[in-house]
Every structure is written in structure tokens, then in C-alpha cells.
Amino acid sequence: MPFDNPTGDRGRRQPRFGKAAQRQAVQGDPARAHQKLNGSAQQKHGQWLARAVDAERSGDAVEAETCRQHAEHWFRVANGRNEP
Length: 84
Fold this sequence. Notes:
DUF4167 domain-containing protein; plasmid
């Protein structure tokens, strides 16, 4: 039998969801992992803009644009107009 598994079902890999999967993602590619920001909407807006500047300085244009989009979201939240 080509798919004989001598260890039984224990050898099968199950998809990982939740905190374990998040930890793997953070460990695997720290440049792309966004940590949770705390503070008011205005503070989050400023923090995302600062991250965009840092990403731009390091030469990562994609990350900089992603951070700018997050900053724009928090700007809209802070001003009470969060329509897309």
C-alpha cells in the first residue's frame, strides 16, 4: 500500500490556526509581521506613518505603502468617516 502510515493518524499534519500559526508567521518573516499598536486613533495614525517612513528608508516600498494604507484607515477612524 503506497500510503501506509505506520504511526497511525498521529503522523498527519493538521492545519494550524490561532496563536501558534501567528507565532510562526512572526518568527518566519519579521519584516512583514505587524505587531499590535496601542493607543487612540490619532496615535495609531502617527505610529503607522512612522512605520511607513522607516520602511521607505530601508528600501521596502511595498511595506511603506501598506503602512500608509493603515495610517489612512486610522485617520478616517479618528475623524469619524470610516467609509471605504
